[in-house]
Design goal:
It contains two helices and nine strands. It is α+β, with helices and mostly antiparallel strands. The strands form two sheets. Strands 1, 2, 5, 8 and 9 form a five-stranded mixed beta sheet that branches. Strands 4-3-6-7 form a four-stranded antiparallel beta sheet, with helices on one face. The termini are far apart. 26% of the residues are buried.
Length: 160
């Protein structure tokens, strides 16, 4: 069995997120310091706080600099200015995986029989992560409260 086979999909995704953030920060070391913003807020999915997930702010438009991201726990997230996103227009990507307890036990056992961990499906719709339609403006030298009310139905509007 390869060394990678012992890691779960969640471990690999978290490692990839951290590597992306580290490489983005390392690339910024050669450039002049960029203005960053403090951000915090809540994230709900169909009116309920998102139990666990991740949030990434990607510079868009005229904004330039590294990505910034953090964890969502109990529907809340917070990034201090030191590790927050760059000031300006940002695309917001939100991700969360379905709990492994939601799988039928037969499906889990089928994966385990092959020495694999069952993949956890993404519960946040694509329009909020991979192809996010969420954009915000982060302002320097103030606390930016950015709340996101996500819907699994495409008919509903999205905040902010």
């Amino acid at each position: 069995m390869s060394m990678l086979a012992s890691y779960s999909n969640r471990d690999c995704r978290m490692a990839l997120l951290l590597l992306t953030l580290i490489l983005g920060a390392a690339g910024g070391c050669e450039q002049a310091a960029v203005a960053r913003a403090e951000v915090h807020g809540r994230v709900t999915l169909d009116g309920q706080p998102l139990a666990r997930g991740s949030i990434v702010f990607v510079p868009a438009g005229e904004a330039a600099g590294p990505k910034a991201g953090g964890q969502i726990v109990g529907g809340r997230y917070a990034l201090a200015a030191a590790e927050g996103p760059v000031v300006g227009r940002l695309q917001v990507q939100i991700r969360a995986e379905q709990s492994s307890t939601a799988y039928p036990i037969a499906d889990v056992r089928a994966y385990q029989a092959h020495g694999e961990e069952a993949p956890l499906p993404e519960i946040v719709p694509e329009q909020y992560n991979e192809h996010s339609v969420l954009f915000v403006d982060a302002v320097a030298e103030q606390s930016n409260e950015l709340n996101f009310d996500l819907q699994t139905s495409s008919d509903d509007d999205v905040s902010p």
